[in-house]
Specification:
Layout: H1 4-10, H2 28-32, H3 42-45, H4 53-60, H5 66-78, E1 90-97, E2 104-105, H6 106-114, H7 118-121, E3 129-134, E4 141-146, E5 149-151, E6 167-169, E7 173-179, E8 185-193, H8 206-213, H9 230-249
Parallel strand pairs: 1-8
Antiparallel strand pairs: 1-2, 3-4, 4-7, 5-6, 7-8
Length: about 250
């Protein structure tokens, strides 16, 4: 949608606000206030399937508190613009893993990531990281959600030596960083897609998804959008037939 001022210029004049109209600020609470149509059962809210994360983290007694772990995670991600991290922030025991990649050692990961220049291939790249939280089961693992977008307007070898001009929009992906007591990263996981209907990567995460979105997918099944196998299709077909038979018998 065009800005109001530009629309007015196209119409041959610039609209000016009336001097006598006062500016009114509506409280945010008023805008968002609504009564849910569903009544919440308080017993359900207190069900013991919902964990007391604060208590669990306290029992873990990891020497670095949760808030500081989140700061360390953001520091790691920012050190390389959202792709990888600075070597000095990685433990010698560092491992990287994705849905179909790894585990890679620190050296293997650094060698792999050094051949990919996202900043050059996507000058307008915007990382979108949010929902940072510490896993109460581990105590030293920070989970976060990653999206991101950008346009391939520069060379992006080995995927696109020449710019394609196409943009990618990532789906939300579950990622994590695990730390040792000194604050170094021991494990880095990315690319676990949470909703494959979001974005234009064919439901793929990480670099495989970016390559697919810009029209340069890699030529093996793991780097292609998910497709139902013949065996799974057969299984679904048999299940549907059996369900119809059961329904007919009442």
């Amino acid at each position: 949608m065009l800005p109001v001022t530009l629309l007015a210029l196209l119409a041959g004049h610039v609209a000016r606000p009336a001097a006598h109209v006062a500016s009114v600020r509506i409280p945010r609470s008023t805008i968002l206030a609504a009564t849910p149509a569903v009544t919440v059962d308080e017993r359900a809210v207190e069900n013991d399937m919902f964990l007391d994360e604060t208590q669990m983290l306290a029992e873990k007694a990891f020497p670095i508190p949760p808030d500081e772990l989140v700061r360390l995670a953001k520091n790691f991600l920012a050190s390389r613009g959202g792709f990888g991290g600075a070597p000095e922030l990685m433990s010698p025991a560092f491992q990287f893993a994705g849905p179909v990649v790894g585990p890679l050692s620190k050296e293997e990961f650094l060698n792999a990531i050094s051949s990919v220049d996202v900043a050059k291939g996507f000058p307008d790249y915007r990382g979108e990281f949010y929902d940072f939280r510490v896993d109460p089961f581990d105590g030293n693992r920070v989970w976060y959600t990653a999206r991101g977008r950008g346009t391939n307007s520069g060379p992006f070898p080995p995927f696109a030596p020449s710019p394609t001009g196409r943009a990618f929009v990532n789906p939300p992906q579950a990622c994590s960083l695990t730390f040792d007591p000194s604050g170094l990263v021991t494990k880095y996981t990315i690319g676990y897609v949470m909703d494959r209907d979001v974005g234009n990567t064919g439901g793929l995460g990480g670099l495989y998804g970016i390559a697919y979105a810009i029209g340069r997918p890699l030529p093996f099944p793991e780097a292609q959008p998910w497709r139902r196998s013949k065996r799974y299709t057969f299984f679904i077909g048999v299940s549907n037939v059996l369900n119809r038979i059961r329904g007919a018998r009442g």
